[in-house]
Amino acid sequence: MAEEVKAHITGTVWKIEVEVGDEVEEDDEVVILESMKMEMPVEAPCDGVIKEIHVEEGDAVDEDEVLMIIEES
């Protein structure tokens, strides 16, 4: 089953901490968003493997936009 990782704020993708194929555990930091000069980490909602990354560093994102897909393990 796949789980979407969504932006919890409107901002800019400052840093992507993972690559497709990486294994992550629930609550691992996968993306850092920047909003109003504050860094806001986005965490994995489940254990699994990164299947898709839908953004690149520097992209502007809206709240609830899908950033990546994790295939649950």
Automatic annotation (TrEMBL):
Residues 1-71 form the Lipoyl-binding domain. Pfam families: Biotin_lipoyl. Keywords: Biotin. PROSITE patterns: BIOTINYL_LIPOYL (PS50968). Gene3D superfamilies: 2.40.50.100. PANTHER family: OXALOACETATE DECARBOXYLASE ALPHA CHAIN. This is Biotin/lipoyl-binding carrier protein. It comes from Persicimonas caeni.
